[in-house]
Design the sequence.
């Protein structure tokens, strides 16, 4: 099973950050400094959209209403569900392989990705909000194996965060820090 992270692997954060920063009326760099701040883990565990965006707004000095939070949630989810052409080509190169997603993602984002046409090619999509666990918690990798019907030795995992890769390796997955589609295809070819 080839297991892929969403953010930073299948979808780059630059367009997401640009769209959300524009809606908030702040610079992208200011948003990037707080987007994965203290409130993010609760959001990825299924927490309230309003609580997350209010916390982001407070750190940016921007007031976020319930209507603003709903709009930000929609913008954020849609951008994370917008698959770049290079990722589409990478997935096409994996045709015939068993593939899955394992991503830290809030509920609305998970729902939006599940509705994206490109996600239909994955055997299983597993998001943190749905299992109330986040990477790098060791329990999420065990939950993923149960959802995928795999043993740890059967999974090859790509993630952009070294701590998530280290935790997956400790679980028994062949895990690699994402260095782009070409490098991933090389890793996969070497395993055959």
Sequence:
């Amino acid at each position: 099973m080839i297991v892929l992270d969403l953010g930073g692997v299948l979808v780059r954060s630059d367009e997401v950050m640009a769209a959300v920063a524009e809606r908030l009326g702040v610079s992208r760099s200011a948003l990037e400094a707080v987007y994965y701040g203290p409130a993010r883990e609760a959001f990825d565990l299924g927490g309230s959209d309003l609580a997350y965006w209010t916390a982001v707004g407070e750190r940016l000095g921007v007031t976020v209403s319930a209507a603003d939070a709903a709009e930000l949630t929609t913008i954020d989810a849609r951008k994370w569900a917008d698959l770049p052409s290079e990722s589409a080509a990478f997935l096409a190169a994996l045709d015939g392989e068993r593939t899955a997603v394992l991503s830290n993602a809030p509920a609305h984002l998970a729902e939006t990705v599940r509705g994206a046409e490109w996600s239909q090619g994955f055997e299983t999509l597993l998001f943190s909000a749905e299992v109330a666990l986040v990477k790098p918690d060791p329990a999420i990798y065990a939950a993923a194996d149960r959802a995928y019907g795999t043993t740890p030795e059967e999974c090859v995992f790509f993630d952009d965060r070294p701590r998530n890769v280290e935790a997956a390796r400790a679980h028994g997955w062949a895990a690699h820090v994402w260095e782009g589609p070409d490098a991933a295809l090389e890793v996969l070819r070497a395993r055959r």
